[in-house]
Structure formats: C-alpha cells, structure tokens
Amino acid sequence: MAHIQLKNISKKFGNHTALTGLDLDIADGEFFVLLGETGAGKTTTLRMIAGLEKPSEGQVFIDGVDVADWGAAERDVALVLQQYSLYPRYTVRENLEFPLRPKIRRLPDAEISDRVARAARTLRIEHLLDRKTDRLSGGEMQRVSIGRAIVRKPRVFLMDEPLSALDAKLREALRTELKNLQMQLGATFLFVTHDQIEAMSMGDKVGVLNHGRIVQTGTPHEIYNNPRDTYVASFVGSPPMNLIDGKLVDNRAVMAPLNFELPLPGGARTSGATDGRPLVFGIRPEDVYLENGAPVEARVHDVENHGVEKILTLRVGDAMLRATVPARTDVEIEQPVRFAWNPDKVVLFDKSSGINLRHAG
Amino acid sequence: MAAVTTSTERSLNKLAIVGVLIVTVIFLAPIYWIASTAFKPRNLATTIPPTVMFQPEISPFVKLFTKRSQLRTAPTPEQYAAAPWWERLVFDGGEKVVRSGRGEVQWSGYPSRFMNSLIVAITSTVLAVGMGTFTAYGFSRFKVKGEADLLFFILSTRMLPPVVVAIPMFLMYRVVGLNDTHWGLIILYTAFNLSFSVWLMKGFMDEIPKEYEEAALVDGYTRMEAFFKIVLPEAATGIAATAVFCFITAWNEYAFALIMTNRRAQTAPPFIPSQVGSGLPDWTVIAAGTFLFLLPVAIFTFLLRNHLLRGMSFGAIRK
What we know:
The structure holds two protein chains of two kinds. By secondary structure, chain A is of the alpha+beta class. Chain A has ten helices and 20 strands.
C-alpha cells in the first residue's frame, strides 16, 4: 500500500492544456475520489500515476520516491477501466492469471491459482472462471476487471469510471461492494468519476477537478456543506445548490434582481460580507422549506416526485429555486406557496470571483 | 432484419440472387475452361465449338512434368510395350520423353519454377505483412513526427504502375547481381506489397483499443510482450486478410518475373506461356500448368476464408 503525491503537475497535449499546477496528496489506505466533468483532466491524472503518460511539468511520488523514470510495469499499480480491460480471447481465469504471469514478478503456479481462487471468491465470480469474457454481462465483466486488479496486491488501485457503463441498480450494488472491498484490503484507491453521488458515497476524500485544476479537496461532508466556490456548489449535489445573486443588508439577504429578502442573522460575521459588495447566496434545496407565514411567496413551477421526497421548483419573479420537501407535502403546479431557508446553512460567495467567503478568509 | 418482408422486397431479393449467380458464372467460366482443358486430349483442346463432353485424361500433366521431343517415326511395338503407362501417353501424342544417357527421365522446367513461385511468394508475403504489421502498430500507437506525410509517402509508392520502373530496376539489379535470384524477386515483391500492408494493417490496428495493451503494461508486461500476447492475436483477422492480398499479388506477378529472371529463379507465370514455343502450341499442357498454379491461392484463400470475410468489411469489428 502506498502514499501518492502529485506536486505541481502540468500536462499539455500539443496546444491543449489538460492539467495546470495540480497538487494532490493521497494518504496510505485512503479512498480518494477525483470528481470532475468529462474533459476536466481526471483520466490524464490517473494515467500519469499509472505511468502511461508523462507529465509536462511536476513530479509524481509513490511512497516518497519520485517515479518519473519508472515505466508502467515497475510502478506496481493496478488499473480498472470503464471497459476494454479484459482480453476477449481469454477466459475469466486466464484474464485473472494474466497480471500474475509477467516476467518481472512471475509467481509459482500454486500461488497463482490460490490468488485467483481467493479473488474469485471475494468477488463472487467463481462460477464464471471458465467462461470466455465476451459471454459476460456488464456487471460480471466489471467484477472480473476488479478481480484482475486485486489478484496482484498492487501498491495502489486506480479506477477510471469503473461503474459508468453499468445500469443504475448494478452501479449501486457495486458501489457498496467496492467500498467494502477497499476497507477489507486496506488499500489505497484513487477512483475517478464524473458522478457526484459515487464521489459522495464512496470517498474518504474527494478532489474536485475543473478545467485541469483542483478546485477543492476535502471530505465529502466538507465538499457538500462548505463548497469552495460556486462551481463546486453547483456541481456537487442533486439537485445542485441554489445560487442566488444578492447583497447583505442588516442581517438580511436582499436578492437584488428579484426583490425578495430573507433573514440571515449572523451573516455579517462572515468577514468581508458587510461591505455591500455583490454576493451569491448558496443554499441547498433541502435547507429551503415551505411554511405558512414564511417571508417569501413563490409559485410552484414544477414538481418531481422521488418517492421519499419531492423536489419542487419554485418561481419567484422569473428566477427559479429548488426545494426538497417531504413526499407527503401536497402541492400543485402554479399553486402559491411561502418559503424560507435555514440561515445557518447559507453559504456566501463573492459575486465576481465565485469564491466562498469563508475560504477566501 | 425486419420481421415483415413485403412482396417487393422478396422479388428484389430474388433478383439479387439471380444477379449474383450471373456474376459468379462469368467469374468462374475461365477457370472452368482452364480446368477442363487441362484434362482434354490435345485434339479436343482447340475445337470450335468447344468440346464439353470428353473422356478426361492425365496426359497433359505427364507432358507438363517431363521434357519431351518430337518423334520422327512412330515407336516400334517393342518400344511401346516396354514403356511405362505414362510414357505411352506421350507416345500417343507423337512425342517421346527425353532421357539422359543413363536412361533417367528428364524433368521439365515446371516443378522448379513452381517451387520458385512458392519460395518467392511466401517469403515476400511474410516479410511484407510482418514489416507492415510492426510499422502500422508504430503509426497507430505512437506520436510519429510527420505521421501524415510519412503515410502518404508510403502510399505514393503505389501511385505509378510498377512496370514503369522495370528498366531502371533491371539495370540496377544487374549491377548488384540480383538478376535471376530469389532474393531479387522477394525484395521487389515485398516493396510492392509493403505500402498496401502498412495501410491495411494500420486500419486494423486502429480498431484494437489501446486500453488492452495499457492494461498489460500496467500489469507488468513490456511493450513487446504486450504486442505479442495481446495485440497480435487481436490483429489476426487483419493479418490474414492482408496476407491473402499480398500472396495473390506476389504469386500472380508476371512482368517483373519475366524481365528479372530467366532460369534459376524464374517463377511459374513467365514460364507457363514460354511452353507455347516448342513445336505446335499444346494448349492442354499450358492449361495443366495454369490449373496447378491456381491451386495454392485457392487453398490459401479457402483456409483463411473466415478471417477474410471479417477482414473485407474493414473496421466492422465489434467495439
């Protein structure tokens, strides 16, 4: 198991800059999730750790050793990809044995079959061992891919959206399994995904990547409740955080273009918020609630029923606001409602930079 | 396919089948002609209208493999009785088999020409496909400076008819002593086929996800091991298709073989028609030589037919 460090990594492909000044620190035994949209540079980061790509600048350390001159084979990492990592001509067993047979770490046959058997048991794919991989379902394939990684006991597991190609039910099941597996192995995982639910539910730590830069690193709790900027706020969470332009006036949030106000006692304690500069108020939909006699009136624009809860889209003037309410709440479209927010949960962002005022400190 | 086929669709299908049959007949007719002539008695080979029904005989093949000369007088009954069955077939044609002073039958030039064809075609195919596969892999997987220009340059070697360079090639070969050698033809045919092989294999290589090799690299294999263990098996279809095309080109090449070789390294294509020269043309012997000459390509193609079908639909490999 290993401790991974990236220091000031930049990567250019021709004129295109994929990564800029990237710093990352993944502790031994940590489940680290790299979260970002398609093209944010997640896969490039992963490939650089694996040794499949060389950084244009900066250094990669594995257990404190600069591995710039190490090839992919020597780094002893395992890679699980979204697809294509199984060899179609081989059976499942041959696929699992493959990583144990290279010359540089050739194991005795007994050890190989022992490890394959153990991995198969862990992943519950023992009955598939003699099947050709093109006859597996998506979920089975992904299990075998993970098996290929765990037979080797690598220093670090790198996973590139391993669950993205699966259907929702299976994804959920494998998510739990993967997390359990990581705890059981005590291994260092770097898991890349664009799915914020995966990031929140699996990660010990999450790094949010945007346009080749790490925007924020923290526990899922920190990322969710205290996003560093409006990008993270709108990217993480489903539905995302409501972001409303406004100003702070005497412990009240005045939403400038819409002309509604919400109380924000103690908001002034946030440094730099009182000088009347334009702000963005961020509030999670679950911290917006409906109440008779609440300060602001809105109309119900849309209702999404999710079973345990309903997600309402509220319309104030021509601005939209999402609120998560209990499923039993009885509302109809175009019905007028009154809402308020939980002032403790409001996050203030600077309007021009988008930075969370608490982070700007 | 749609479960419901309309009557127009069905009649269109029938029309297509009829079309395919007609084309097939047109393509197979010359082959039938050659094959049937190879088994005809000499006097029936050139009849007009062509003879369709005849007693097949093997004498053309006997003549093909032996050296013969015209008989001035018919063989005596003793000579005839003493001759083995196959020699009688030659006597019947008004010829005799040439024997050495010690009475050994003299072979015709055909077997050695046939061997030359095999040596040259197989070696040049292996070389062209082998080098083409490696080159294509390089172009497909690595950033090569000026890749587009290089690939265009490789293709440009096919932009003029090869015969155009025959005379300079002949002169150069004479200087370096490659005239009438196996290697001379092998180098030439490999050069012709290489550009084709590179381009075809590049298409097939591009189809193989590079993730396969990367997984192998991460698992601790070297680039070479990954190439041989993972890429090559995946490229088998493409290699088979390319090999068939290269083999056919090399096997059928006529002009350069005619110019560059005359005896030791001569291949079958220039040799077969050269038989016309001795006495009256015996078309049955020429047909027999051609018939045998068709077989290797037919067998090779037949063995690789499954790969070929997939290979022809370039890039239709399942992703």
